[in-house]
Amino acid sequence: MQTCANATTVAFSGLEAKRVEVQVQLTGGTHGIVIVGLGDKAVSEARERVRAAFASIGLAIPPGRLVVNLAPADMPKEGTHYDLPIALAMMAAIGALPHDALDGVLCFGEVGLDGALAPAPGALPAAMAAHGMGAAFICPEVCGAEAAWAGGEVIAAPSLLALVNHFRGGAAVKAAVRGELIGGASVPDLRDVRGQEQAKRALEIAAAGAHNILFVGPPGAGKSMLAQRLPGLLPPLASEELLEVSMLHSVAGLLQRGQLTRTRPFRAPHHSASMAALVGGGLRAKPGEISLAHHGVLFLDELPEFSQQALDALRQPLESGQVLIARANHHVTYPARILLAAAMNPCRCGGGSGAGLCRRGPRCAVDYQARLSGPLLDRIDIQLDVPPVTAADLALPPPIEGTAEAAARVARAREGQAGRGAGLNATLNLQALERVAAPDAPGAALLAKAAESLVLSARAYHRTLKVARTVADLDGADAVRRVHVAEALSLRRQWAGADQGGFAKVS
User: Pairing state of beta strands 65-71 and 16-27?
Assistant: First the structure.
């Protein structure tokens, strides 16, 4: 009887899948199963699931002590996907599988009490790791369509018994087939929005340069309608972006039937969301909403109603494009390159002092808007007042141009940015900004005057220049001119109480 056996699986650190050896040894002594190697509660409970699964398929565990070691032993192990490698290594150790059956394969999946294999989050990045190792990938049947996108050999079995038959020369498990690449659900059209021409223009600029945008206006002005139409203006995901987004959604357990979509993510969490829900965290440090919106749109409606802690936690990811979740014994990094769209009322009453609807006077708007910190607002390139929609606006016929026409202009502007080789305008570093977005003399004079009179911070100065570069791209202009700088400056609103030391002094 083979008393020792190994199987290979992975442990996740963010999107990185690190190799883990599952070592099983059958020794003398007290009958039982012991799992060591810094596993969490789900890993330790695997022994009971595997024991019950063995009994359900009529497989007896011989007398003795089965020691399961997850190496490297100092790496934290989390999740139920260790069930299958533990079960297969135990089978090989007790002679139920050929001793070389697990050579050159990577195992991944949860085992049910009846021996059926159940899905576990992260099949796609685990399959990518297997392909990189040159190993075949064994997973539950329901994960096969997802894992097949990684390429290589994928053995997707419905149960432990099917794998036993496969390895012992019985009925072979069929190779998995990739899931469907779908176009995604249809998005609402800009034609549905009556009036609000300046807000539509701002939305187009935000999409063209990946600029964060904030709409401020009374209830019913169309702020949410505008934000919901933003994904339709963005181009489909490129292949590399598609892979990153799909791996994130796989780790979060959000891929359905292995279907991938080129439609950019749109996440709209409720304002009661915690900091961990927004930026990631929790017991297993899963990706948060900002990472699930990677290469897409994160929409935060009723922005001041989010907790101060949650909003301030967004500041660093908005700048760096990634989230670092620190724990006592390990750090996890998730990508978070997003376009932030946000909406808010001018005051808690809804209308704000300017609209004449506030019941408490100007102080209400000052207090409500003060919930947003200056550093957070400094990272939002476009901040626009959205006035109420009038009855005359509602009576107008549908606009001639809709999402398709605006998306075509956005695509042309992004093609121009790609041709410069410096990335999207919102992500330009200082050297690239000086090279591609230096304004002409009148534009530079206007920006310098505005920076002095409106007390723009260095970040606000550079972000205004980035928006001006995007406006020029939409106009098909090679250089940034005064008119482009003027429009960029018009997209930064004056905040209530700014003249009393408020956090933004721009108009």
Answer: antiparallel
Task: Determine the pLDDT at residue 352.
Answer: 52
Q: How far apart are the first and last CA of the chain?
A: 80
Strand order of the β-sheet with 16-27 is 4-13, 16-27, 65-71, 32-36
**Residue 83 located in a structural domain:** yes
Indicate whether 201 and 328 sit together in one domain: yes
Q: How far is the C-alpha of 335 from the C-alpha of 247, rounded, in Å?
A: 11
DSSP tag of 220: T
Q: Is residue 432 part of a domain?
A: yes
Tell me how crowded residue 166 is: count the other CB atoms within 10 A of its CB: 18
Q: What is the 3-state secondary structure (H, E, C) of 86-137?
A: HHHHHHHHHCCCCCCCCCCEEECCEECCCCEEECCCCHHHHHHHHHHHCCEE
- For 386-431, the pLDDT digits (tens) are 998 888 888 888 888 899 999 999 999 999 999 999 999 999 999 9
* Segments of 350-462 assigned E as strands: 382-385
Q: Do 162 and 194 fall into the same domain?
A: no
Q: CATH number, domain at 439?
A: 3.40.50.300
| Residues ≥6 apart with Cβ < 8 Å to 99 | 2, 5, 92
- pLDDT at 439 (0 to 100): 96
What's the number of domains the chain is made of?
2
E strands in 113-259: 117-118, 136-140, 154-157, 181-182, 213-216
Q: The tokens of 211 are what?
A: 């600029």
CATH of the domain at 135: 3.30.230.10
What residues form DSSP beta bridges with 480? 439
Q: Is 178 part of any domain?
A: no
Task: Look at residue 497 in the predicted model and tell me its pLDDT.
Answer: 57
pLDDT of residue 315: 93
Of 167, 199, 216, the position where a domain reaches its end is 167
Give the residue among 201, 208, 168 at the shortest CA–CA distance from 59: 168
Task: Read off the pTM.
Answer: 0.91
Report residues of the chain scoring pLDDT below 50.
Answer: 1, 353-355, 499-507
Cβ neighbors of 142 (< 8 A, separation 6 or more) are: 117, 118, 119, 156, 257
Residues 6+ apart with CB under 8 A from 358: 346, 347, 349, 350, 351, 352, 364, 365
Q: How far apart are CA 386 and CA 396, in angstroms?
A: 18
User: Are residues 372 and 307 part of one domain?
Assistant: yes
Report d(CA 334, CA 317) in Å as an integer. 10
C-alpha torsion 178→181→185→191, nearest 10: 180
Do 216 and 87 share a structural domain? no
Task: Say if residue 397 is in the same domain as residue 263.
Answer: yes
Q: How far apart, in Å, are the Cα atoms of 397 and each of 42, 276, 389?
A: 59, 45, 14
Which residue range(s) make up the domain with 153?
A: 4-167
Residue with tokens 């990189």: 132
